[in-house]
Amino acid sequence: xxxxxxxxxxxxxxxxxxxxxxxxxxxxxxxxxxxxxxxxxxxxxxxxxxxxxxxxxxxxxxxxxxxxxxxxxxxxxxxxxxxxxxxxxxxxxxxxxxxxxxxxxxxxxxxxxxxxxxxxxxxxxxxxxxxxxxxxxxxxxxxxxxxxxxxxxxxxxxxxxxxxxxxxxxxxxxxxxxxxxxxxxxxxxxxxxxxxxxxxxxxxxxxxxxxxxxxxxxxxxxxxxxxxxxxxxxxxxxxxxxxxxxxxxxxxxxxxxxxxxxxxxxxxxxxxxxxxxxxxxxxxxxxxxxxxxxxxxxxxxxxxxxxxxxxxxxxxxxxxxxxxxxxxxxxxxxxxxxxxxxxxxxxxxxxxxxxxxxxxxxxxxxxxxxxxxxxxxxxxxxxxxxxxxxxxxxxxxxxxxxxxxxxxxxxxxxxxxxxxxxxxxxxxxxxxxxxxxxxxxxxxxxxxxxxxxxxxxxxxxxxxxxxxxxxxxxxxxxxxxxxxxxxxxxxxx
Length: 493
Prior knowledge:
Elements: H1 4-21, H2 28-51, E1 61-69, E2 74-80, H3 85-102, H4 110-129, H5 133-142, H6 144-154, H7 159-188, H8 193-197, H9 203-220, H10 229-236, H11 239-264, H12 266-271, H13 273-292, H14 297-318, H15 321-352, H16 368-381, H17 388-403, H18 405-430, H19 437-440, H20 447-465, H21 468-485
Antiparallel strand pairs: 1-2
């Protein structure tokens, strides 16, 4: 019997290869059916992982271990805990959403397009499952290829610039991470993550290792000041690319901090904590101010994503159970809200071919259902109580108050800024008089789009009203993580 994690990783990759290799042999309908089947089957495979997951265990579950490259002790080692499972499910679900969203689109070479997303889905699940450093690194680097192609082939007019910038930022950071892995291998005698966890390291060594990890993971989130690639990537990426980029890829950095950087170098993390908190606060406030002056809707949402991910890093860096749990809830919440907002911008762009806020106005008169959904997501993005956008940020602010009143105050200030830029965009785009003739020709969203956006809205509400659905999965893992961070790994003299 094939283990569930292997199935979750390689099923979408198999369907991706099938789409690419047989594109000239099957009709468009058959290729679309293959894409839907691949996305749906991949999602259904991940559901039992959640159902059968033991919430009370601190151990990695569903472990798979096979020797791979024996001379270097590189193994095919997979396993999941409370940090992995929700993100794996989110990955497979959002991939399925993207496939349904683009089924009837006029994208050229749609089968290759779907194949790239299925390939990326499998590789990202691999990142969330890998317990071997080299296996993790291979998945981490390989997933850049399909996203590189998605932006570079199906992106906007400046897609080449955005793609190269995205690739250089991520690869340079990843090379430092690889250097850290190689050093740890010579110290631990293997590439096993579990061996890295228990390896004694001096504080100077831990600091260097942490900085190497930080450069890789901070770029992926992204944190200030290595964030500039994201707005460019979002602007040039097709709508589906922006959805996956915001919903999943940004979470890889936060997850990797929890999985690698902090547990491997806990003393360094505690030593550098003040600097890390300051960087997070800068991202939260400064980037929110930048979002206020954006004229392109996609750029505004991109900067909003960076600001909201600042709450994620702040919560993690506080090293308080409530902060870490709040950061994780924020990651899942942002996955739904940001994805929905990018879909909404894409719907408008498909009809008007403009993302400029000044080109709109009075959209509510032509698209009342669509407007209601956008207003809901904008309010959730602003942290409206009762939505998932409120829960994670509130938990992080409460955890910040335990550390310092001023940290909590600065973080809370961003809720006002978030409301300002979100509601400003809604007012300019959806209300008032139409300034563009294209707005007068707008058509209401179809049933397929209503179902997709309605499903995302439902998850935003469910998590907002019942956050324990997430926290029950992560509680034990978070407590174990914080306890581990409170134990020193400095070698006994």
